[in-house]
Design a protein that fits this description.
It contains five helices and 21 strands. The protein is an alpha+beta fold. Among the domains are: 158 residues, no CATH class; 117 residues, Phosphorylase Kinase, domain 1, CATH 3.30.200. Strands 7-8-9-10-11-12-1-2-3-4-5-6-13 form a 13-stranded mixed beta sheet, covered by helices on one side. It has an eight-stranded antiparallel beta sheet with strand order 14-15-16-17-21-20-19-18. α2 runs antiparallel to α3. The longest helix has 33 residues. The protein is globular, with a radius of gyration of 29 Å. It starts with a helix and ends in a 7-residue tail after the last helix.
Length: 396
């Protein structure tokens, strides 16, 4: 072969080598693009948005309440709109006084079919700006900053808060006052046929008898199971509510939350008296001739509302809230016997402590009835609030 031919072949070889090298770089780049981890948004970063986007839920709700050696189990078919007070609940198994509860957000009906009785109760409006369950769940995930579903993680801080005990079950606790909480992420689990993220909320203090476990739907961030355990005045208490047979967005209309009592039912109307709101307790004291209590509450609570009730019942009321709980202190010109789940002493008087959707402590002083009521607050805290009020003068 001539020199010119050899040079031509060498040129072809050089060209082939260069092309092959470029191709190798291109392939390597493509492989790098495939293998490179994509930036991942933390799990639950849009939990509140996804929760709010759910227009309706139907499910079977099973609630088990254990207090000491007593256990109560209730199974109900429910329909609800998350983030609202619209709910329909029919008890299918359990010893409950009312078999049907229906709320359209402004009015709640309770119906006892065996007795042929219906009770109509007007509802107060939820305060503007109150955090939804979706907001609270998102805060927990934000603290954890988890990017993989099979990870484990933990976080803590005073801004963390558990979820309130599911309404309609039992008076539940707030997180222990003035204590930092920790939250743990423990991968996923299955509730019924749905996958759920597992979160555990506990106080950082080792001797704090409180724990809440949340199993949160991985798609809609609806809490499929909530277990809350605490100790109330030495008695262990636990509440577990589980939603199974869950259908999201089943097409609920307003009729699902409407109720017309049967024609032969006895209907009781709970009509609210006239109520005047004041911005502060100081303004209420200046406007009323009834002395206004000055309760002492844990530092996490802030005053939000003061009011005077007039009409057949005359009294005053104060409301306090924190991230998860609510406490009201009311005083009105009616007295009743001390009748509750147990009794304690408040200011030398016998006070009744009751458990239910909210816990309460009630006692009589002269012609006035005092009630300290708490939503998601331990009865032991309510008793201390009651004792800080005791029997203050009944006239300003």
């Amino acid at each position: 072969m001539s020199a010119s031919g050899r040079l031509a072949d060498r040129g072809n070889v050089t060209t082939i080598v260069v092309v092959a090298a470029v191709a190798a770089v291109a392939v390597a780049g493509a492989l790098w693009l495939v293998a490179a981890p994509a930036a991942s948004e933390p799990v639950g970063a849009d939990a509140a948005e996804r929760y709010a986007s759910v227009e309706g839920v139907t499910a079977t709700a099973t609630t088990v309440v254990e207090r000491g050696d007593r256990t109560r189990r209730t199974v109900a078919e429910v329909a609800l709109r998350p983030g609202t007070d619209q709910r329909r609940e029919r008890v299918v198994d359990g010893d409950e006084r009312y078999e049907l509860t229906v709320s359209n957000g402004s009015t709640m009906w309770l119906y006892d079919g065996d007795a042929g009785r219906a009770k109509r109760i007007p509802l107060s409006q939820t305060p503007d700006g109150e955090a939804t369950r979706g907001d609270r769940v998102e805060r927990l995930f934000a603290a954890l900053d988890v990017t993989r579903a099979d990870d484990t993680a933990s976080a803590s801080g005073p801004e963390l808060a558990p979820l309130p005990v599911v309404p309609g079950t039992v008076g539940g606790p707030d997180a222990p006052a003035n204590r930092s909480l920790g939250v743990e992420y423990d991968g996923t689990a299955t509730v019924g046929d749905r996958e759920a993220y597992v979160l555990r909320v506990t106080p950082e203090a080792e001797n704090a008898a409180y724990e809440q476990t949340l199993l949160v739907d991985t798609r809609h961030f609806f809490v499929l199971e909530q277990r809350t355990e605490w100790v109330d005045d030495g008695t262990p208490v636990s509440v577990r509510t589980t939603y199974t047979n869950v259908t999201f967005d089943p097409g609920l209309d307003d009729e699902a939350f409407a109720f017309d009592p049967p024609a032969d039912a006895t209907v009781e109307h709970v009509d609210p008296p006239t109520q005047t709101a004041y911005g502060t307790a100081a303004k209420l004291r200046a406007a009323t001739d009834v002395s206004v209590p000055s309760p002492e509450l844990p530092a996490s609570f802030r005053p939000t509302y003061a009011s005077e009730t007039t009409g057949e019942v005359h009294g005053v009321g104060l409301r306090y809230v924190n991230e998860t709980g609510r406490v009201t202190v009311a005083k009105y010109n009616r007295t009743f016997p001390a009748d509750g789940d147990r009794t304690v002493s408040v200011g030398g008087h016998e006070a009744a402590v009751t458990y239910g959707p909210t816990a309460s402590v009630s006692w009589n002083c002269d012609r006035y009835r005092y009630t300290v009521r708490g939503q998601n607050v331990p009865a032991s805290v309510l008793v201390e609030v009651a004792r800080s009020v005791a029997c203050e003068p009944s006239a300003a």
